[in-house]
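Task: sequence in, structure out. Protein: DUF6896 domain-containing protein.
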Amino acid sequence: MTIEIKKPLRIEKIKTLLEKNERILFVLNNGSFNRDYIVKLQKELSSYVVSEINWINKLVIVPSISTKTVLENLNKFYQCIELFDKTAHSLMNLMAETFDIDLNNSSEIYDLKKNRSEKQRGQINDEWKYYFHGKGCSFTNIITEQFLDVQIINGLEFGELDAYYLLKFIQTTESLKEMSLILNDESNNMQKVIEILRINDYLIQLSDENTGRLIINRNKKPVDNTIYSK
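Result:
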């Protein structure tokens, strides 16, 4: 259900709407959704994920795994993202060494993409192949079929998160099968994990601008037996 609004609705009103509508898309005609409002809404709606689409002033509310489930597995979910982050940077550095390019020079990456690759595809070694597309580069392990997609438009920062691609990384990583089962192949569940990690400051914005583009907070890790407010 899509609803156009002039200002953010009261949480009680949203709960009433959710009793009759499983999914809601709010379109704000003027202004933007305040981050504190979104956080409060997410904390109130424990069986949903609340996601903002910043550039078009939209708020999406859809069913997801419970906040309780995310918090109970928060350390392991953080470790999933930590592994993605390390693997992404490792593969980009391997690509730089293999093809002798400066990752901080976008023209050299573009040259590899357009002139030194076959239809923007290639192979780094006997284990990894790559495919450039749009603003990203996908890597696939030839042996294990592990997959990850890396955004290559942020200088030397390659850890930008995308719910769909992060889920695919977890699904194709053997050591993360337990977490993949919890996520149940649903990108909404992955987005819920991202939102809860962000609320608890384990994810941070890529820039000072409120773009919603997130990376792992490398200066804050979950501690075992931490009690989180629901």
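The helical segments are 11-18, 35-44, 67-72, 74-99, 106-114, 163-171, 177-183, 187-199.
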